[in-house]
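[recover] target loaded
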């Protein structure tokens, strides 16, 4: 297991530690612009693209070292995972929100396809049930 600052959550500057209502009261215009998909340094913190700039290369670097059919497990916060998935899939940053949030203790599965990374599963929280065929 490796710990690396590249996978930390988005630094949200002055927004950190505030409730949703407090953010709206103090930074309502900034919050609204961010929800519209504009690049916003929430509370003076990081842009989502900067999070992807640090996290995606870390993931790719470790994925490149995997043996054939190997599995890489990456654990981080939902925002970091979402922006990294968006970057790996080649989506434009304003489309990353379309991936939706990642709930606590849930995961996503990516695999390499002929044209790059593919999202195979997103926001999963239960293991798939085995399918029993007629040959059982």
């Amino acid at each position: 297991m490796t710990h690396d600052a590249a996978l930390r959550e988005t630094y949200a500057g002055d927004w950190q530690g505030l409730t949703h209502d407090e953010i709206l009261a103090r930074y309502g215009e900034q919050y609204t612009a961010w929800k519209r998909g504009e690049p916003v340094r929430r509370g003076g913190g990081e842009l989502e693209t900067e999070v992807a700039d640090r996290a995606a290369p870390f993931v790719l670097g470790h994925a490149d070292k995997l043996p054939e059919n190997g599995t890489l497990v990456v654990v981080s916060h939902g925002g970091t995972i979402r922006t990294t998935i968006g970057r790996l899939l080649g989506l434009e940053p304003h489309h990353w929100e379309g991936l939706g949030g990642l709930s606590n203790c849930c995961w996503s599965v990516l695999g390499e396809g002929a044209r790059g990374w593919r999202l195979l599963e997103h926001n999963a929280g239960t293991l798939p049930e085995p399918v029993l065929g007629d040959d059982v």
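[recover] notes: Helices lie at 20-35, 48-63, 78-88.
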